[in-house]
Amino acid sequence: MHSDGLFISFEGIDGAGKSTHIEALAAEFRAQGRAVTLTREPGGTPLAEKLRAIFLHDAMDGLTEALLVFAARRDHLQQVIEPALARREVVLCDRFTDATFAYQGFGRGFDLAVLSYLEQQVQTVRGQGANFVRQPDLTVWFDLAPAVAAARLVNIRVPDKFEAQPQAFFANVAAGYTDRCNKDPGRFARINADQSVQQVRLDALAAVRSRGWLA
Ligand code: TYD
Question: Using CA positions, which residue lies closest to atom 21 of ligand 1?
Answer without folding.
Answer: 100
